[in-house]
Amino acid sequence: MTPSPLLDNLIYDTPRGRGEQGRSSSVCWADRYQRFPETPERFDRELCVLGCEGFTTGWHWWEVTVQEADDIPAWVKACWAIGVAKESVRRKGSFQMSPKVGIWAMGRSGGESYAFSMVWQPLSLQSRLRRLQVRLDYEAGKVEFLDMETDISLYTFWTGPLLGEMLRPFFYLGKEGVTLQCEEFPRPIKDLRD
């Protein structure tokens, strides 16, 4: 994941034993600061990071475990999102997650689960989301989210024509007490059949 400086209060964990130096596998909000140089690739206001790997063709998937702390104050509602974003997504200033700005994501805000479409779509869920899979079919323009604990498809976005624009995994943390852990790094869907 490419870190964002955004107040420098996100923590990036490096995977152990993967041989991929510098690639992070988790992101969480914390009370300590990490300093990163200001670059055009970093978000400056929104608490977002993009995956290092980008896609311009093919079918890909990755799994994310969501850990919401139980000991945070009741008034702090979990706020997070995962999905995909265009490489060209605006990284300076504020924005609202939606396909209009080049982000196809789902997650939680204000304690409720949503697909962050043009008009946020509430998701009727029986339990808190813990393990999710993001599936991207680039040519079909399809981004699908699955609950890995129930094997249920939660929401599907249709991106429309992408015209070769690169898409990257997208991660957002809006409140403290949440960790997003990428359990399976992006890989082609064909690996599912192997």
Structure overview:
This protein is mainly β and 194 residues long. The protein has no helices and 13 strands. The chain has a seven-stranded antiparallel β-sheet with strand order 1-2-13-4-9-10-11, with no helix packed on it. It has a six-stranded antiparallel β-sheet with strand order 3-12-5-6-7-8, with no helix packed on it. A hairpin with a 4-residue loop joins β9 and β10. It starts with 9 loop residues before the first strand and ends in a 6-residue tail after the last strand. This is B30.2/SPRY domain-containing protein. Belongs to the ohanin/vespryn family. Neurotoxin that produces dose-dependent hypolocomotion and hyperalgesia in mice. May directly act on the central nervous system, as it is 6500-fold more potent when administered intracerebroventricularly than intraperitoneal. Pfam families: PRY (PF13765), SPRY (PF00622). Keywords: Neurotoxin, Toxin.
Provide a quick synopsis of the model.
With 194 residues, the chain is mainly beta. Helices cover 0% and strands 41% of the residues. The chain is globular and about 45 Å long.
